[in-house]
Design goal:
The strands form two sheets. The protein has a six-stranded antiparallel β-sheet, with helices on one face. Strands 10-9-8-7-11-12 form a six-stranded parallel β-sheet, sandwiched between helices. It has helices at 83-89, 127-143, 162-171, 198-204, 220-232; strands at 5-16, 19-26, 39-45, 51-57, 72-77, 96-103, 116-122, 146-153, 175-181, 194-195, 212-218, 240-244. It has two domains: 5-103, Elongation Factor Tu (Ef-tu), domain 3; 116-244, Nucleotide-binding domain of ferredoxin-NADP reductase (FNR) module (Rossmann fold, 3-Layer(aba) Sandwich), CATH 3.40.50.80. It is 22% helix and 34% strand. The chain is built from five helices and twelve strands. Strand 11, helix 5 and strand 12 (240-244) form a beta-alpha-beta unit.
């Protein structure tokens, strides 16, 4: 069983009407390093005292080995009536939560030789891609990979970390950011904004087995639909990496 450790809240801000960005530090003096794409588990109790846990991908921009006192960021969706939502709503700066991790293998692989990464996400499923940005910058420089991020949101207000992705795209010609809005477009949308769902924009990109590796992260329906699209286009299953986010109360 993995050892638990305390995280102390040091800051928060709203990213969207129902999504909050939370920054923590490990509160026992030890470092908490992670590989971009990994997640932590938050342990707490239901009102009846029974134990439960929730998983959250780390959103920290990972550009150095994390040391003691370095912040660790997550994005939390607030679900009406959700036990985890109640936990985080009641959490004030300086207070602790109990965690374990990091876990998971939804990460960039060192032996990849692909020409392009297709990163597909909805909601807080884009947090791993935010953490991957420094590593993607290195890969674009070292082996000239191209990266496309397809981000599905209902409205522009729900495009969490959108400013980070827009800024990264401006700085890196090999990075293309395609926001896909299902319920309303921003004013004066740029050329890569799409109306509809990520799978529609995905087919436009002509994924191919020769050069592409795809990552899928977000709600299960989106992950399943895009997995089938990619599989039908001939991508080998090892080239399709998936992480499903299941909302639970």
């Amino acid at each position: 069983m993995a050892a638990h450790f305390p995280l102390k809240l040091i800051g928060s801000r709203m990213l969207a009407p129902t999504v909050r960005h939370l920054s923590f530090v490990r509160d026992d003096g030890l470092p908490l390093d992670f590989i971009p794409g990994q997640f932590i588990q938050v342990h707490f109790n239901y009102p009846d005292g029974s134990a439960t846990k929730r998983s959250y991908s780390v959103a920290t921009l990972h550009n150095h080995a994390m040391g003691p006192g370095d912040a660790l960021d997550i994005a939390v969706s607030f679900v009406p009536g959700g036990a985890a939502s109640a936990l985080f709503e009641a959490l004030d700066e300086g207070q602790q939560i109990e965690c374990s991790g990091p876990y998971g293998r939804f990460c960039l692989m060192a032996n990849d030789s692909n020409k392009r990464y297709l990163l597909i996400g909805t909601g807080t499923g884009v947090t791993p891609y935010r953490a991957m940005l420094p590593e993607l910058a290195r890969l674009m420089k070292e082996r000239s990979v191209e990266v496309v991020l397809l981000f599905g949101a209902r409205t522009p207000e729900e495009l969490i970390y959108g400013d980070d992705f827009y800024a990264f795209a401006e700085q890196h010609p090999n990075f293309r950011f395609i926001p896909c809005f299902s319920r309303g477009l921003p004013e004066n949308p740029h050329a890569d904004v799409r109306s509809g769902y990520v799978q529609e924009a995905l087919t436009e990109l002509s994924p191919n087995a020769e050069g592409d590796v795809a990552y899928l992260c977000g709600n299960p329906n989106m992950v399943d639909v895009n997995f089938e699209v990619l599989k039908n286009l001939g991508l080998p299953i090892p080239h399709i990496r998936r992480e499903k986010y299941v909302s639970s109360k």
